[in-house]
Amino acid sequence: MMGNPYILTIAGHDPCGGAGITADLKTMEDLGVHGLSACTALTVQSDTVLKKCEWTDAGLIVEQIEILMESYPVQAVKIGIIEDLEVLNTIVHLLKAKDPGIRIIWDPVLRSGSGYDFHNRIKVRDLHGILEHCDLVTPNYNEIRALSENGNTEKAIREITSRCHLFLKGGHRNDRKGMDILYRKGMPPVEFSPKDILNTDRHGSGCVLSSAIAAYLALGNSLEDSCEQAKEYTYRFLNNAPGRDRLKGITLQYISQGTTIDEHLKNIRNICVAGGDWIQLRIKDHPEKEVFEAAREAVKLCRAYGAKLIIDDHVSVAKAVGADGVHLGKNDLPAGEARKILGPGFIIGATANTTEDIEHLAGTGIDYIGLGPYRFTHTKKNLSPVLGLAGYSRIMEQLRQKKIYIPVVAIGGIGLKDMGPLSETGLQGVAVSSLLSDAKEPSTHSGLRETIARIQQYFNQTPEVASR
Ligand SMILES: Cc1ncc(COP(=O)(O)OP(=O)(O)O)c(N)n1
Ligand SMILES: Cc1nc(C(=O)O)sc1CCOP(=O)(O)O
Ligand SMILES: [Mg+2]
């Protein structure tokens, strides 16, 4: 074959570039194939919120495909979001009419990473005529469940694999998390174990995987090798995720307290020794130079114990000492300004008291929300209105309805007995200060260790287990 092979992505446009045709083209370029694109939808979204999806007229999609197929020797096609089965059917038949040998990889996006439902009522039986023309479909575990009738995923897998190959992504399965399985027509399945459990919910990861498979196939690899290499490529993509993904599984933030800077550092050390993995250095009423000195020591401590360090308020200190991130209040530097200073690698947290606050902040590219106060506390002056458990339940439900998915931690006057009820609202975790600032001496380390482990566990289990 002369030159780089051509691959066509038929998918939606994501203005933030993390998913859809932009992500597909980046992947293709990266893997040394020539990427072409036909746009099926214009979306209004960031990596956390999908607000709108305007479908491209079917005739216009057909025209885009026709000109590309007539001008370039397209070897493989990746199909992403499509308005409905009628449009999908038209596209698949058009592609096969133009080139019966073309390889079609369909990534059936039924729900976007940010929670938007595209097609939630389609079943496998509706897809028979389309699957006959595909080489490979790449649903995730939730998607295969949604496609199955009466929850019978085994039957759905059999129905698909009697027509085309199936790469079932295991990022959402509870039994064998991260285990992807390639079911080939008439051959035994091949399992691809995860190297590590990474956040497969990352916006665009499905697009990256399916375009990478298409690229590796077009480069002449076997289906099995293409899937294996594409999984490896997607692993690298997930591993290079910006701040938010690095918060996965981190559920308890300790907010430092102390009457002196030494006391802050002593408390931080105690928490790290006892298994705390997320620390916020919150020093009030000291000159920035002293906060900087303290932050330098706190970074050393946190590095030594493998904990992440967030600096309250002081963006330039966080950057100068190489902390993991910063926490911004309503009167601090706006998140967008902080991001310009810190770049994509830093975690940025921000304070909220209402659903509207969170909705606004989620659009500014921050990584987590501190939502408070839960109840009255002496630790912070000028508290916003107390939310109570009812407030958290209401706000978390509103976020689900608005399809806003961003890690939220509760804060303010939280005690051990609050962990169970709070963990059931869908929070990622809690941020506490007084609760963990009293058990100081080495003799109490085992008690502190147990308390920290219990809190972390509350938020690291499934909602069903947490409510038992
Ligand atoms: C996790 C977390 N949530 C909220 C806050 C409060 O921050 P802010 O509103 O900036 O108030 P101060 O902490 O600066 O008094 C926080 N620090 N951490
Ligand atoms: C730092 C802070 N921010 C709050 C908010 O509501 O934004 S409440 C709070 C104090 C958290 O400490 P404690 O666990 O001792 O109450
Ligand atoms: Mg602050």
Automatic annotation (TrEMBL):
EC number per UniProt: 2.5.1.3
Record bears the keyword Mitochondrion: no
Listed cofactors: Mg(2+)
GO cellular component, one term: cytosol
Gene Ontology biological process terms from the UniProt entry: thiamine biosynthetic process; thiamine diphosphate biosynthetic process
Alphabetized UniProt keyword annotations: ATP-binding, Kinase, Magnesium, Metal-binding, Multifunctional enzyme, Nucleotide-binding, Thiamine biosynthesis, Transferase
Residues binding 2-[(2R,5Z)-2-carboxy-4-methylthiazol-5(2H)-ylidene]ethyl phosphate: 377-379, 413
Family: Belongs to the thiamine-phosphate synthase family.
Name assigned to this protein: Thiamine-phosphate synthase
Organism: Sinomicrobium weinanense
